[in-house]
Amino acid sequence: MANPTISPGPASAAAVNKRNRRGSLEPVLFHTLNAIFMIVLVIVTLYPFLNTIAVSLNAGNDTIRGGIYLWPREFTWQNYKAVFASGTIYNAFWISVARTVLSTVLNLFLTTMLAYTLSRREYVFRKPITLIFILTMYFNAGLIPGYFLMKDLHLINTFWVYVVPSMISAFNMIVIRTYIGTIPESLIESARIDGAGDFKIFIRIIFPLCKPVLATIALFVAVGAWNSWFDAFIYTSSKQELSTLQYELMKLLSSSMNANSNPAVAAGAGMSQEAAASMVTPLSIRAAVTVVASVPILIVYPFMQKYFVVGLNVGSVKE
Fold first, then answer.
1. pLDDT one-digit tens code per residue, 218-232
2. What is each CA distance from 311 to 32, 121, 306, in whole angstroms?
3. Which of 10, 13, 92, 180, by CA, is between 20 and 30 Å from 218?
4. Where are the domains of the chain?
């Protein structure tokens, strides 16, 4: 005998309809709040950079009044003319480019080679050597011993003082070694059975498979090398042809503090008389310097973004 179908009463039907309406409203509410939050986040993130661009394109005298937000009030290229007025800025730019490229390539190759060596379980000294590298992350000899070390290595006033100290990074080595640990050991064992040596395994298997983490490390190293100016101040300040872009921009920014009151100082910093006469203020020069220093990295980042996101997840998920 078939069970009779029980139809819901008016009260239960109303409750079901209420739950259905609430269930249909929840996704709409979530997506609306999520969109509002992301729009606010984008505005908060982009506003400082857009404001810096607006200030860099605004007349120095007018910038002092304040009230510059997303658009220059008195448009001018004078701030950028002041930045590029010195002929040394172009040579410094190419020195920074060469330094960034060489430092990034050598750091990636040598640090990955070290990470692969210390990831091998059969290497008996991997633990003490790893401990030594970790200690360098916590203890530093200091500025003066570092200077004397560069002097003993005959690197003072040479281009290689920018490259040699950054060829190996303990932190990058640990990150890359963690990523190498996620590569199946069967790939390495099969290559050994086919007669491949350690260097061939590193070049043909390990290095290509580490592309995501290497892109992340490359961005870190490149940004650090591009933004560095203190080593130029310490090691090569007496040799103008080895000056880097960041060091030249730092000198220009420091000199602009006195540019309004002393045109001779502005001329000594590479600023033209027109720039000094038009009252290029420290605030406007600082904005122009920030834009000039940031644009090359902003151009490179979109091409490495997908690898950068993958590389940041190294070690976060274990299967």
1. 888 998 999 888 999
2. 31, 24, 9
3. 92
4. 87-256
Beta bridge partners of 75: 58
Q: How far apart are CA 76 and CA 94, in angstroms?
A: 27
DSSP 199-225: HHHIIIIIHHHTHHHHHHHHHHHHHHH
Two tokens at 222? 């490149």
Q: Which residue has tokens 């086919």?
A: 194
Write the secondary structure of 117-130 as one string of H (helix), E (strand) and C (coil): HHHCCCCCCHHHHH
pTM of the model: 0.73
Rounded CA-CA distance 278/272 in Å is: 10
At 266 the pLDDT is 47
Question: What is the model's pLDDT at position 109?
Answer: 93
The conformational region for residue 285 under phi > 0 = left, psi -120 to 50 = alpha, else beta, is alpha
Planar angle of CA 155, 159, 161, nearest 5 degrees: 40
CA distance 282 to 284: 6
Residue 318: predicted pLDDT: 44
What homologous superfamily is domain 87-256 in, according to CATH? MetI-like (1.10.3720.10)
The total of other beta-carbon atoms located within 10 Å of residue 304's CB is 17
The per-residue pLDDT for 269 is: 45
* Contact partners, residue 117, CB within 8 Å, separation at least 6: 123, 126
Q: How far is CA 139 from the centre of its chain?
A: 24
Residue numbers of the chain with a pLDDT score lower than 70: 1-25, 257-280, 304-319
Nearest-angstrom CA–CA distance, 146 and 160: 15
Contacts of 172 (CB under 8 A, 6+ apart): 107, 111, 217, 220, 221
In degrees and rounded to multiples of 5, residue 226 shows phi and psi of -70, -40
